[in-house]
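Below is just one:
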Amino acid sequence: MSDPTPPSSPKSTPPRRRKSVALKAATAKPAPKKPAPKRKPGGATHAPNGTANAPRNMTKTEIAGFLADLARTWPDAETELKFKTPFQLLIATALAAQATDASVNRVTPALFAVAPGPAEMAKLTADEVGNYIRTIGLWRNKAKNVVALSQALVDRFDSEVPADRDALESLPGVGRKTAAVVLNVAFGQAAVPVDTHCFRLANRTGLARGKTVLDVEHGLESRIPADLLRESHHWLILQGRYVCKARRPECWRCAATACCLYPEKELIPPRRAKS
């Protein structure tokens, strides 16, 4: 009789998973991957409208080259507001806040024909002034301020526009930028008015980056050579208004791209859609 076959040794088997658990694991969708955050070119920051700002400030050499290019681009730069006296410049500049120079130039000739100076303007009511300027933004408040600042000039400054920043800013409706425009244009002082065009261009190009208007103003004053401060104000405004535009800078038309630090330059003009 043959020996009985020895019993086979028991094999180790993995524990069975519950069908429901296995089914869930097999059919579960992978978690969606979050897109990696976009890195801004060269560490540049972005303006609220999405356009990039320069990653750093220009060097002194770059500033000199940039301003020289702007000087050649705008050799006869001056304010586009129409005026004949410091008083009319003060009024026109105050009216231009949150309005275009062109819109102000359309209303001031008729207003100045009736009230060319502070004494005549102070005799008008706010409603009468408003009838002349109602096509520009915030005209009601501006009309009140025009009458009030005219009366203040008559009462406190012998109907003369003061050539002093603090005195100008004490007038109703006159802020830092308006005062700087009057000092720069009417009195030839090296004041640096920072409007929306200057602020955008200074940050975008790296001429003088800053989070606030005052930061940019101080940056421009400290970085631009003193003998160019007064003229450069007009170059920056015109360049920002007509070339380095808010939504899309027209770099292909710019003569100052060599030293500009804007990281998203478009040097080839976009193709026009066929009509």
Notes: DSSP finds twelve helices and no strands in the chain. Confidence is low (pLDDT under 50) at residues 1-15, 17-26, 33-41.
